[in-house]
Specification:
Elements: E1 2-5, H1 22-37, E2 41-47, H2 52-66, E3 72-77
Parallel strand pairs: 1-2, 2-3
């Protein structure tokens, strides 16, 4: 089980994402490791700001997971604040 936030320091405290491709980019190494070892991954928390760039980044992360040939079991969205 892993967590992934798409802001610059990976903390989930900023509404700004690094880029629209950061979701897929940050999952690539984990995806490769899961595929090489045969383990299954679960993204227990993923979160990003409420703006177009972040929505695109989250979509990219979910697409990366979906295209990983069963390496990922799923993900849960994490939200905080009012």
């Amino acid at each position: 089980e892993m967590h992934q936030y798409l802001d610059s320091d990976g903390s989930g405290t900023s509404p700004t994402c690094v880029s629209s491709t950061i979701g897929a980019e940050r999952l690539q190494a984990a995806t490769q490791w899961l595929q090489q070892t045969g383990f299954k991954g679960f993204l227990g928390e993923i979160g990003a700001g409420n703006n177009t760039q972040c929505v695109t980044a989250v979509e990219g992360a979910l697409c990366e997971m979906q295209q990983a040939g069963g390496a990922w079991l799923g993900a849960l969205w994490w939200a905080a604040g009012p």
